[in-house]
Every structure is written in structure tokens, then in C-alpha cells.
Amino acid sequence: MLYRIEPGAQGTLRALVGFTSTQSLDEAPVDFPEKCIHWRLVLPMKFEHGSYRIDTVDGTATEHDKC
């Protein structure tokens, strides 16, 4: 889900997105062993070749909650 897009530094954009993952416990993140996780993260976007594209993610912290 796309929550919002806001201006970033130097003509870039930041997209706040969310999604839900489902997985077995052995495939879940080691630090968050849940079968269902709601994720929220910010993706940097830059204008390239005539359109905006997701840029390299710089280790931005993600937020997550169990379903």
C-alpha cells in the first residue's frame, strides 16, 4: 500500500509504503519470529530515464508489527 509521497533531498522523493508478509516461523526474521508481519518503510525515489524509480535504500529503519 502506498501511504504518501513527499519531497526528499536534492529533487528526490520519499515514498512511505506498507505491506504484509506471511511466512513460516523458520523463514521469519530472526529478531521478529512471527508468521504474519505488517511492514512500513520509506523508499527513496529518484528521477531517471524519464520517470521516478526506487533508489538505493540506505539502511532506512523499517517499522513492523505482528498481524
The average pLDDT score comes to: 93
Q: Summarize the main sheet.
A: 5 strands, antiparallel
How big is the Rg?
A: 14 Å
* Low-confidence residue ranges: none
User: Beta-sheet strand percentage?
Assistant: over 45%
Shape designation:
elongated
Which features would summarize this protein structure in a list?
5 strands; 67 residues; elongated; mainly beta
Folded structure, characterized:
This protein has 67 residues and is mostly beta strands. It has no helices and 5 strands. Strands 1, 2, 3, 4 and 5 form a 5-stranded antiparallel beta sheet that branches.
Q: What is this structure, in a nutshell?
A:
The protein is mainly β and 67 residues long.
Map the helices and strands:
Elements (H helix, E strand, L loop, with lengths): L1 E6 L5 E10 L13 E13 L2 E4 L8 E4 L1
Antiparallel strand pairs: 1-2, 2-3, 3-4, 3-5
